[in-house]
Prior knowledge:
Oligomer: heterodimer
Shape of chain B: globular
CATH topology of the largest domain in chain A: Rossmann fold
Number of strands of chain B: 22
Amino acid sequence: MEQNAAYWITIAHIPKWNYAKINNLIKDIYIDNKSTIEDFFMLKADDWRERFKLNETDIESLINVKEQIPNNAFLAESLSNQGFEIIPIISPEYSKTLKENLKLTYSPPVLYVKGNKLLLQESSTAVVGSRAASEVSITFTDNIAKAASKDYKVIVSGFAKGVDKAALDSAIKHKGHSIIVLPQGILTFGSGFKKYYKQVIEGDVLVLSTFHPKVPWKPELAMARNPIIYGLAQNIYVAQSSEKGGTWSGVKDGLRKGRLIYVRNPEIGENVANDLLIKLGAKPVDMHGNEIVNAEDVDSIHHNQSESPNIDQQIQNVIQMKPYTAKEICAKIKCVWSTRKMADYLKQLAYIEVVKVGNSNKYCLKGQEGEQQTLNFD
Amino acid sequence: MSDYTKLTRFQAESILFRDFKIRTFYDTQWEAISRILNGERVLLIEKTGFGKSLCFQFPAIMFDGLTVIFSPLIALMRDQVNKLQALGITAKCINSNQTEDENNAIINEAKLNKLKILYIAPERQENSIWLEEVRNMKLSMVVVDEAHCISVWGHDFRPAYRRIINLVNLLPKSMPVIATTATATKRVEQDVAQQITGELKILRGNLVRSNFELYVIDVNSDDEKLIWLGENINKLSGTGIVYTGTIVNTEIISKWFEYLGISSRGYNGRLDSETRIEIEKGLIANKWKCVISTNALGMGIDKPDIRFIIHTQFPQSPVHYYQEIGRAGRDGKPTVIILLYNPQDRSLPEAFIEGAKPSIPKYHKIIEALKSEMLGEKELMKISNLRQTQFRVIKADLMDQGIIREIQIGKSKKYEFVPNSKPFDPALFEEVKKAKTAELESMIGYAESNDSRMKYLCTYLGDSLDYEYRNCDNTGLAKHFVSVTEDWVLKLNDFHETYFPILEVETKNSKIVNGVAASYYGASNVGSAIHRCKYENGGDFPDFLISLLLKAYRKRYGNERYDLILYIPPTVSGDLVRNLANKISGILKIPISHSIQKSRITKEQKVFENRYGKTDNVSNAFSITDTKLIVGKKVLLIDDIFDSGATIKEVGKYLTDHGAISIAPLVLAKTVGGDNV
């Protein structure tokens, strides 16, 4: 265990200090003053004021947390005894990818980990996405995780249902490596350690948390955990996002920080917000994660997909029963196209016939009009 | 934190008198205290009675916050806390004998900074509530009492102390820490100093106890020990302690004293806490001539006037011996220290040393099991077929070598394999075993020495004092011997034939009653006679065993009438038990039935090392051909050896379920943990 573990636990969780503020102090201590955290806490308030240019409010919070160091020694001992490790931001074991991506402003000052910490130094890929993921998203996730595992890349995921779990499970299935980034304190993950026992002890999985070890799962932590997943990964793939929630805000946050993020190009009619993320600057990729390089490609894929027997079949299935409007057809087959786009598409299909019902156009199969009409009157 | 460094000795002593009613410090005490007040770390090695506790209790009341004292013995904690409370100092202890509510209330007081001193066992560091709550206490100092427990080279290594060392090393360097012990050889001293990182000041005093009168009395057998004790114990002045090597011997000696009308009580670590407290209190109040105990008693008991200590079995090393006799005569008045020495007794400590480590494959079994699954103690014991004591040794060793570790999953403790750990290395044990064998030889050297016994002990413990010792039977005091008179032989024989071990088997849902054995397996000639018959084709059990068994029967069940004799069908030893039961049936004129059968094949119970295995082995293993036979009957149930009791209990339960109204067990011998049947 890191000898100064009690100090690091203390400094990592100073109330009301954000990561940037804590990291700047660490930088002041280690780089600017060539000192150590232990020596820093031996200093008197006057030294803090003069050498570290700390204001009175900051000094007061530091005096308060200093009293916690012996107490945190008890926690550190318990962590160490159970095989948990504390990796401070100044340690060479700290993930370089994380530091590069999140800089001092957003990097957590301390990582709590258990498992193969060398995984922090390997190339990494994150697959993220919604908890209620569709089958196609899960297939995509499996494809990405499989390819990454083949390339000896670590899969980073957040241990949520849906895409996260699928990414982890397929990395394990394909004998790859994984980092699980927890939305909770690492001491509260007992059942998970039991479940992934073999993977952890065999060095295939690293469990990581940036929160106080004892804090239980909370929705806020799940949100706060997302940037860490993006930060730990060199490549980020989004399997599925809706227009709100963790994935959505996580990707937006990533894009704002200038990250390159790949989003699965949605199938026609898929009720997902992947399109919108692409519009915001994420790069579309196909089912195997290959980037779709320009707009024409996107269109052609859309085009191909739209002409695919798949969507035509769905349309046929729907209008077999009775004529529907373009809007109704969109709704029935869960297609995200505009009504106009659907109407245009329907009109150019050879087997479709347009029937006027009241003021609106309805579409049915050619030659079945009469029958359909009859049914309609029933 | 205030600045205590400016406190002068004079000022400190006025506080000392006000709060502790003591006028002055010894020089060494003051040196330790002033260093601690200065935030330093100290290892203090001083003999019992020196006043080590004051060296941390005084600074504790000076500091703003709480002093946490790790101490291995509940009795010691209780004594110290009572004493401090009597002085008006806010001291409490958390321990496993108190209810969870009591402990939680104390933790609360500590959190509110209402306590100055909190005693806890090192094992508490494994408790999740404690770890959660200690985060909210204002800590000023950490004390490691009995610090020799840190070292595997010490006489009382405790794995839980490893964690205490880790904790101390994680504490901020500015926090004062004091480790104390009365018994540390140079090697242990160095080991402790090396393990506690940072600057550590070692303060070592001399270990001479000049008020001791040390004797070694040669005996040739256990019977001679009983005779010597019977004849002489009442001649010693005051009250004292008789130490035995095993729990059974505490029982035998206290029954012997009871037979002779000598007031005494037996004590051992397996008694419930209420009984232990009652006996400790009685000892302090001189209620009996002596307490007969394993070495579980005494360490830290605050009785200044223990006037004699008699060992009926020599301990494993001179350090053990010094530690155990060190509990006597703390008031400085003359105190008699006797060792009843039979050279053959070396087999017991030798067995401890030899049997201290289970066989190597057992270690690998545990390691392999944990490589594929996270498991708890119960599961591991079942998988590995180990006795709890053995399992715990393995567990501690593997944890010590960093191969497995204990983790908390929710509320339960589990064990896991440590990835990338070094392979298990039994060679380390060999080294410890060699050292322990050498220590045992030194202990025997003490008994056989012709020189000053006190000097022998002090030199062994690293004292280099030049001193004229005149306080043993080699340096001026009279030699003592055992005299075996006919009168005493008769008394002893009579005792052997009237004292029978009880078999505790009663449970709620069975009509079985606590039974009786003719003897302990290991005692006198019973075990060897049984072994000959069972395993060396020695024929039927000899008549002396049968007449002893009948005596046991009459003593325990004299007035009861039994309707039927049944016996446990054997696994290996042929018709021995059947013939025994037949004879008993003939003599007592109680009808016998041969109808208990094994409904499936079992293994010999002795191959199972733990209760779980034994219980599983016999579970549903017995049936009776004609159950009508036992309805409404009082049954006398006969067997040869009573070990864990699992078989007798299983049959008792079966007979209860089929209508028997009382089942009374009667066996030849009861084994004692570790008996090799």
